[in-house]
Each structure stands twice: as structure tokens, then as C-alpha cells.
Write a structure and sequence with these properties.
It is a multi-pass membrane protein. One of its GO terms (cellular component) is plasma membrane. This protein is an all-alpha fold and 451 residues long. The chain has helices spanning 18-51, 56-84, 86-103, 110-138, 141-172, 177-183, 186-196, 203-208, 212-223, 251-273, 275-281, 289-309, 315-335, 341-359, 361-369, 375-404, 406-427, 436-441; strands at 9-10, 227-228. Helix 1 packs antiparallel against helix 4 (110-138), helix 2 packs antiparallel against helix 16 (375-404) and helix 10 packs antiparallel against helix 17.
């Protein structure tokens, strides 16, 4: 505060304005596209599979192509974004998403579809790494947590909308309807691209690259004439290196962000992907849309609750308590051989509600814990590690059910959640109410690890 003229405030202290809301709209809009793209492929495969005479190998390859791409995109594009800037990466990413969405309409064989979906996955992975970093760098600290949580909430909304749209498009029938299903993601992508066009570069990134005058001009134009960036001097001219994530200074936060995200995603993706099979195993029928919609409604309720509560309670408390609730929700189903429909629905409802509410922390914690020069790199790496969990979960769950039964398989899922709980107790810091600079330094200091 020393040397600041009366009436001046910092980026973290600035009131939320219309520009902040635009940033939230075009960033969460990208996540809507991501959820929509990933959700639509399930219904499209019902029609394109027989038309293309897909073998089990190609069903698996096309189904996993976007996940493979997300891993690559998250791992590489986060680092690239820290090198070339948020603005350029953000624009290129949406253009690619738009072009590739349309390209799906014209594929003629499984190989072409696999390649297009792989590239789409890379674009989605880039979006994960770029969006959270950009939002965190613009938003004031008072609303940062709840608005970053909207990334996960809007991703879920995009997924649910794709499920509903896909179901009704499937009912329409026709040989080419699957092409329209896949290409329909170009509509939200185009809208988000228009919103994103002309957006400025992150002033924190500009400061990091020594471009102070540009950063000051952007802050005064978009945030306020009384907003100063003197508090960002600590970030100036710091070089980006991927290996820094594994240095003594940042290793603890890299481990924490990667492990908790992995442990949330692994059982979640497995259960939501194979929910009909799980329900059938428990002799609970599912008519397709109804069961899927019910599960998705619990997810939507969870993410809305997570956004609402994000800045009202301790981040650390939220993380630890969520794992503590998730573990028994799977453990109970694992130890009861033939649970009643009430117990089954209750446990799944609790699991989906809590895991999606706590899933909002997946974009909050990494964005706060890594400093500007490696923020996208750190978010991208943690996201990539989480996608290995998604891939492992979706790959092993059906094999586990067949070989060991549903009970043992769900107990393994509960075991993964136990690892997440232990990691959170040992490493989860508290970042609520801190400036972005303070949050990125919190693990360098002696943390108060009380719940």
C-alpha cells in the first residue's frame, strides 16, 4: 500500500464490472463447448457405428480420441500459453474448435473421425489450461472463487444440453443425423468466438514479460482509471520453464493439484460413463433418457451448490469434507450385496451431487496456487493428470465389474477417494480471501493445516 495515491486500488481490490462479466461469459462459454462436444459423441456413435461398420477397436478408439487429445492439449498448451500469451492462444483455440466441429460433418471413415476428434480433444485440453488462468488473472479476489467455479458448472451444463439435444436428434432418425449431431457444436463455438474476439491480453502476463506500459493501459481501459498494478512487480520478467513445476518450490502444489483432481475424476468419469450398466447390474432399469437425465440433474444441482458455497467456506474445509462424504457413498454400495433401490439411488445421488460440487475446486485451486509465469502450465499439467484418471476409470470399470463384480469395483473407487482425502489433509492450503499473489505464495510459508 506504500506510495499509493488516495483512491487507488489494485486489480484484486477492483469492483466487479461489465468487462469482468464479459470475461466470465466468453471463458465459461468455452467450457460449455467442451462439455457439449464430449457429451454428444455417445449418441452419435449409436448411428455412425453401424454405418461405418465400426469394430470394437474403433469404437474404443473414437470414444477415447478426445480424452487422448485433452491429455496432449492440457500438457502442452498450458506451457505454450505461458510463453505466447493468453489472448493469442485463446483465440486460436476457439477458431480450431469451430473448424474441427464443422469438419466432423464431412468425415468418411473411422480414421478421419478419430483424427478430427483427437484434434478437438487437444483444443479442449488447451481450453482447460487457458481459461482458468485468464479468468483468475482478471477477476477481483472477492468473487474469484465463485466465478472460477462457474467453469465446471457451465461444462456440466454443456454436457447435459448435449445429452438432451442428442436424444431428440437421435429420435429424428436419418442416415446423416449423426453428422448434424457432431457438427452442432460449431454453433456454441461460433457464439463464444464472437464474444472472445477483441478481448485484451492479461495484464499480469504482460507484466511478467516486462510490458508494463501495455499492462497499465489495459487495466485503466477495462478495469478502471484508479486501478494500479504496482502490486504485480513481484511477477515482472520471470521466465517460464516446464521443469519449474517439479522444483523444490513448486513440487508440493504440483502434487496436490494433480492428485486431488485425479482422485475426483477417476471414479466420477467411470460411474457417469457406465451408469446404465451399473444400474442394470443392480437390477435397476434405465429407459435411456430418464435415468441419464436424473443423474445429470444431480450433477447440475451439485455444481450450482458448489458455485454458491465456494466463497462462503474455507477451500480446505470444502475439499476435505467432500472427500469424507464421497468415500462412504461408494463404500456402502460396495459392501451391501443387493442394496434396495432407495439405498442405491441415495448413494448415487449423494456421490454425484458432492463430486460435482467439489469438482468446482478443480479450476479454483490450481489457478490460485501457481504464479503467473507458470499458471497455465500448472493448470494444464494437473488437468492432464486428471485425464489419465478419466481414461483409467472408463477403461478399467467395465473389466472390473466383469472380473470382480460391482461391489469390489466400487470399493476400489472408494480407495481412490481415500487417497484424495489423505492428500488433501496433508497438503490442501487455504486461499480464500487472498490476493492472487498471496495465494500463489501460500505453500511457501508455514501453512495452518487445521480444517
Amino acid at each position: 500500500m506504500e506510495g499509493r495515491i488516495m483512491g487507488q486500488i489494485t486489480l484484486d481490490e477492483a469492483p466487479l464490472n461489465s468487462f469482468h462479466k464479459r470475461v466470465v461469459a466468453f471463458t465459461t462459454g468455452g467450457m460449455f463447448c467442451d462439455g457439449y462436444i464430449l457429451g454428444m459423441i455417445g449418441y452419435a456413435m449409436v448411428l455412425l457405428g453401424p454405418q461405418m461398420n465400426l469394430t470394437p477397436f474403433w469404437y474404443g478408439m473414437i470414444g477415447s480420441s478426445a480424452l487422448i487429445g485433452i491429455f496432449i492439449g492440457s500438457l502442452l498448451c498450458g506451457w505454450l500459453t505461458d510463453r505466447i500469451g493468453r489472448k493469442l492462444a485463446f483465440t486460436i483455440d476457439l477458431i480450431l474448435m469451430l473448424v474441427l466441429s464443422i469438419s466432423q460433418f464431412f468425415v468418411t471413415d473411422p480414421t478421419q473421425l478419430f483424427i478430427v476428434r483427437l484434434l478437438l480433444g487437444i483444443a479442449i485440453g488447451a481450453e482447460y489450461a487457458i481459461g482458468a488462468a485468464l479468468m483468475a488473472e482478471f477477476l477481483p479476489k472477492k468473487q474469484r472463487g465463485s466465478l472460477l467455479a462457474c467453469l465446471n458448472a457451465v461444462w456440466t451444463l454443456g454436457f447435459v444440453v448435449s445429452v438432451i439435444a442428442g436424444y431428440f436428434m437421435l429420435k429424428m432418425g436419418g442416415d446423416t443425423i449423426w453428422r448434424w449431431m457432431l457438427a452442432s457444436s460449431s454453433i456454441p463455438a461460433f457464439i463464444v468466438l464472437i464474444l472472445r474476439w477483441g478481448a485484451p491480453e492479461s495484464p499480469r502476463w504482460l507484466i511478467n514479460k516486462g510490458r508494463r506500459e501495455e499492462a497499465e493501459n489495459i487495466v485503466k481501459k477495462y478495469i478502471g482509471s484508479n486501478v494500479v498494478i504496482d502490486d504485480l512487480v513481484i511477477e515482472e520478467n520471470v521466465k517460464t520453464s516446464y521443469l519449474e513445476l517439479f522444483s523444490k518450490k513448486y513440487m508440493k502444489r504440483t502434487i496436490f493439484c494433480s492428485v486431488f483432481w485425479f482422485c475426483q475424476i477417476t471414479p466420477f468419469f467411470a460411474i457417469i460413463t457406465f451408469a446404465p450398466q451399473i444400474l442394470k447390474t443392480f437390477n435397476l432399469s434405465d429407459d435411456g433418457l430418464t435415468g441419464t437425465l436424473i443423474l445429470n440433474l444431480f450433477q447440475l444441482a451439485g455444481v450450482i451448490f458448489g458455485v454458491w458455497i465456494m466463497d462462503k467456506v474455507s477451500r480446505r474445509y470444502f475439499m476435505i469434507v467432500s472427500f469424507a462424504i464421497l468415500i462412504p457413498s461408494l463404500f456402502i454400495l460396495g459392501i451391501i450385496p443387493n442394496p434396495s433401490a432407495f439405498i442405491l439411488i441415495l448413494c448415487f445421488a449423494v456421490f454425484l451431487f458432492v463430486v460435482t460440487a467439489a469438482g468446482n475446486l478443480e479450476y479454483v485451486y490450481p489457478s490460485e496456487l501457481f504464479p503467473t509465469h507458470i499458471r497455465s502450465t500448472g493448470v494444464g499439467f494437473a488437468s492432464a493428470m486428471s485425464r489419465t484418471g478419466a481414461a483409467v476409470g472408463t477403461l478399467l470399470l467395465p473389466m472390473g465389474i466383469e472380473r470382480y463384480g460391482i461391489g469390489v469395483t466400487l470399493l476400489i473407487g472408494a480407495g481412490v477417494l481415500v487417497i484424495g482425502l489423505i492428500t488433501s489433509i496433508l497438503l490442501a492450503p487455504e486461499t480464500r480471501g487472498l490476493s492472487l499473489n498471496e495465494a500463489s505464495l501460500v505453500l511457501d510459508q508455514t501453512a495452518n493445516n487445521k480444517i
